[in-house]
Specification:
19 strands; six-stranded mixed β-sheet; 30% helix; 345 residues
Length: 345
């Protein structure tokens, strides 16, 4: 068996492959690691057939759809998943075949209604149902502490020697076993169902940082803000602050500096000579404000992110000499570079 574990902060994802047939599967992939998964599969000579999410993630961004498109693989989730466009929905007791390997589906609702564990010959991928020294939380959408108690009872009835590989581990422990968790996991020591429910309801955990965005993208297949920025960054050139300063201070400046912030931020202080065209009005006003598509343009904003998106938009609209400032007005001010206040450029 070919096995790779990829950690992204506390998120854990897995590449599993059959050494005899070169068939592979990715489990709980995270969007920032797409290139790594592709490289690992290529290095190991695997043809990834399935990309599986053990549940609808609310705390990180799934790469399943993107990887499935890149690899020609099938996305897999439990039948209860609310996500549209899942290629293969599976149910309790069914198996996913990867060459000579088998992963049996164990429906384990509780953390989410669509949570499932994947049971292999010597290991179980527990998603967020069972963690090392803990369990998944039950206070996120479709969470149910009573259902989690029942699911854990089923899971813990498996062979104690099975290796446990969860979807999260923040202490670098990698894996555990069913037996070790039965013996030492604090949450599993509460054997009374009602008491377990009370315990889970009283945890008062903080909400994940990107809860709304993660649910939106994981349930719809839409892009994250980070992905949009990465795509924009990959298709626009950048100009350093020092280079831009030297050019705007030159006797004959050949640049249009386009400030895409809002009016109040622009008037509080902008690069001398910069024109104001807020990002929200860019597409509607650009032909009037910038009639020459051959003009050389450098976009700027407060932190350098919105200006990158604006530069990418302008280039797709035909303004092919558009670049983005490498940095933003915050960095410009911190560097002590000149600014002009007021409505005039």
């Amino acid at each position: 068996m070919i096995f790779e574990q990829v950690a992204t902060g506390g998120c854990q994802s897995y590449l599993l492959g059959c050494a005899d047939t070169c068939a592979g599967v990715l489990i709980d992939p995270e969007v920032s690691q797409v290139d790594r998964y592709l490289a690992l599969a290529a290095r190991d000579g695997l043809r990834v057939r399935f990309v599986i999410d053990t549940h609808t993630h609310a705390d990180h961004f799934s790469a399943s759809r993107r990887l499935a498109e890149r690899l020609g693989a099938m996305t897999v989730m439990h039948r209860a998943s609310p996500a549209p466009g899942v290629a293969m929905r599976v149910d309790d007791g069914e198996s996913i075949v990867i060459g000579k390997l088998r992963l049996q589906v164990l429906h384990t609702p509780g953390h989410t209604a669509d949570s499932m564990c994947l049971v292999g010959a010597d290991r179980v991928f527990t998603g967020d149902t069972l963690l090392i020294g803990g369990t998944g939380r039950t206070d996120l959408p479709s969470g149910d502490p009573a259902a989690l108690f029942d699911s854990l009872a089923r899971l813990l009835a498996l062979d104690p020697a099975l290796l446990v590989f969860p979807a999260h581990d923040y202490k670098g422990r990698g894996h555990s076993t069913i037996g070790a968790e039965i013996a030492g996991n604090p949450r599993l020591q509460q054997r009374d169902r009602a008491a377990f429910v009370t315990m889970m309801k009283g945890l008062e955990l903080s909400m994940p940082t990107h809860l709304t965005e993660a649910l939106r993208t994981n349930m719809s297949g839409g892009k994250t803000v980070a992905e949009m920025l990465a795509e924009a960054t990959a298709c626009v050139p950048f100009m350093s602050m020092a280079e831009l300063r030297s050019r705007v201070e030159a006797p004959a400046c050949d640049l249009i500096v386009l400030d895409v912030r809002e009016k109040d931020a622009y008037e509080a202080g902008h690069i001398p000579g910069a024109r104001l065209l807020p990002r929200g009005q860019l597409e509607l006003r650009v032909d009037k404000e910038l009639p020459d598509p051959t003009a050389r343009i450098v976009t700027c904003c407060e932190f350098g992110r919105i200006s990158t998106l604006a530069a990418a938009t302008l280039r797709t609209m035909g303004f092919e000499r558009t670049a983005a400032l490498d940095g933003g007005m915050k960095s410009w001010l911190e560097a002590g570079y000149p600014v002009h206040a007021g409505a005039a450029p």
